[in-house]
Amino acid sequence: MTNGGGCEQASFIDDSRIVVEGKIIDESNQPLKNVSLHFSNQINGIDVYSKNDGKFVVSTPITSASNTISFPNNQIVEVRTSDSRIMYYSSAITIPNDVNYVNLEIKIK
To answer: What InterPro entries does this protein map onto (predicted)?
Structure first.
């Protein structure tokens, strides 16, 4: 589907959901609590905070767009996951739209 400007718009894919869970740690591998992360997939935008043990969970309907996790106040140092298609940069993690579950360990500074 396109809009008048020719840009592709995201759409929901049936009743499928994506679940992203993980743990946020510092450069000494210690869990970080109350770290803000923003999940988006062009339709949904969700702000989540890590718990006292550094863990977080996001669950939302899957769309036809890639999923992005960004850290507004922190820089990503390393991401550990079993899916090699998940990419990360200093400010964001991208998860392909055909992935419906991912577990991440995210090291930030």
So the answer is: CarboxyPept-like_regulatory
The predicted-structure confidence for 15-72, as pLDDT tens digits, reads as follows 688 899 999 999 999 999 999 999 998 777 899 999 999 999 999 888 778 899 999 8
The token pair that represents 14 in the structure block:
């049936």
**pLDDT beyond 50 at 81:** yes
Largest CA distance in the chain: 49
Q: What's the full length of the chain, in residues? A: 109
Residue 40 corresponds to which tokens in the numbers above? Answer: 């988006």
- Reference 94, options 26, 41, 27; nearest CA is 41
- Degrees to nearest 5, angle at CA 67 with 92 and 100: 130
